[in-house]
Specification:
Layout lengths: L8 H12 L5 H8 L3 H13 L19 E9 L5 H9 L4 E6 L6 E7 L2 H12 L5 E9 L12 H5 L1
Antiparallel strand pairs: 1-3, 1-4, 2-3
């Protein structure tokens, strides 16, 4: 069995539609795929039970809420064994929206939203850089996001 378990092309198409727009109703998906809405419901239940679908997200324009800075932080750890402790402390900082344990120069790579550069400096200085286990950080401010899309999972896309 592969990592995705027993999913077929219909499952992949359902996922692709919902990944593109999580608000699409099961009835609309059923019409697009020429199956019943009950079939879509049963398959979604199966995908949730398998752990493939773990939730749905709302996409928000953070700039319209006053968060004009998107930054990425490369976090240098004193020791890689401190990842778990540092990660738990980072979870408590509301401006941090994602953190990844990485290979390469950084132990952790973090995405953060701030209102302005003053707010970013406060978060870095007052919240992040004093976490035990963090040696130092390197900050990259994003000027523009050019790609933000779901992963293409349908087999039709793979064949192109």
């Amino acid at each position: 069995m592969d990592k995705t378990g027993n999913i077929d092309d219909i499952d992949r198409k359902i996922l692709a539609i919902l990944m593109e727009n999580a608000n699409t109703s099961y009835t609309e998906i059923a019409k697009q795929l020429f199956v019943s809405s009950g079939t879509v419901h049963v398959r979604m239940t199966k995908l949730k039970e398998m752990g493939i679908v773990t939730g749905a997200n709302l996409t928000v324009d953070h700039t319209k809420l006053g968060y004009d800075i998107v930054a990425f932080l490369g976090v240098f750890l004193e020791k890689s064994s401190l990842y778990g402790d540092v990660s738990e402390r980072l979870k408590k900082i509301p401006e941090i929206v994602s953190a990844h344990y990485t290979t390469g120069n950084y132990g952790i790579f973090v995405k953060i939203f701030c209102k302005d550069t003053k707010h970013l400096r406060e978060v870095l200085h007052d919240k992040i850089q004093y976490i035990p286990g963090i040696q130092r950080t390197e900050t990259f401010i994003a000027l523009e996001e050019s790609i933000n899309r779901p992963l293409s999972i349908s087999r039709e896309e793979e064949e192109k």
